[in-house]
Specification:
Hypothetical protein af1432; globular; 58% helix; 200 residues; mainly alpha; binds fe (ii) ion
Length: 200
């Protein structure tokens, strides 16, 4: 990930609480900003896992679950076209579109070391947890003939300890993200497998 300290701690306007892009506009933004299908899939996978966690583990209602989903869906929106300004560009775009400040803060805090914004609430902490792990688990699926079918947590744990496998995935970030929540890594891995396996 590029290293762009945002040097900001407040994002969006509290008056915009509850405002999200329509599903149509969010998808259009994705199509325009993210031509790379693999990156789009990554963003959709993180979105699906975020939404599932919100509903299953925090008892979120529908509008709250949509917030989690949208933060996941858009968190890397500027990565492909503005790698040196990731995630400043998407943050400013969402501020311009009057989007809920919690969604914007969540995106801003998905890499604390890189962007200089600490995860505060559960949504922030979980996007940080899921981002690298989701990509890692997908990389693990791609090398299996049956993909996600029959994939088990143990094999993922083993690959995490193999530094040469998906070497670009930062094990330090995963450890740091996990240290901020109470759920064990094994449980998170199972959750990611279950909730991103069918995302197209
Ligand atoms: Fe990501």
């Amino acid at each position: 990930m590029a290293n762009l300290q945002l040097n900001r701690s407040v994002f969006g306007d509290p008056a915009n609480a509850g405002n999200l892009l329509s599903d149509e506009d969010a998808l259009q933004l994705l199509q325009e900003w993210v031509p790379n299908d693999r990156l789009q899939l990554h963003m959709k996978q993180v979105a699906a896992v975020m939404k599932a966690w919100a509903i299953q583990r925090t008892g979120a209602d529908e509008p709250t679950a949509r917030k989690w989903y949208q933060a996941g869906l858009l968190h890397d929106a500027d990565w492909e076209k503005y790698p040196n300004d990731h995630c400043r560009v998407i943050i400013e775009e969402l501020e311009r579109r009057n989007i809920d400040p919690e969604v914007i803060h969540c995106i801003a805090s998905h890499g604390p070391k890189y962007f200089g914004v600490e995860p505060e609430n559960t949504m922030d902490k979980m996007i940080y947890v899921f981002d690298e792990l989701s990509g890692f688990i997908h990389a693990s699926a791609l090398i299996r003939p049956a993909r996600y079918d029959g994939m088990d947590v143990k094999s993922v744990m083993k690959k995490l300890k193999t530094a040469s496998f998906a070497a670009q995935v930062s094990r330090d970030d995963i450890t740091d993200a996990l240290s901020r929540i109470d759920t064990p890594l094994e449980e998170i891995i199972q959750f990611v497998i279950d909730n991103q396996k069918d995302v197209q």
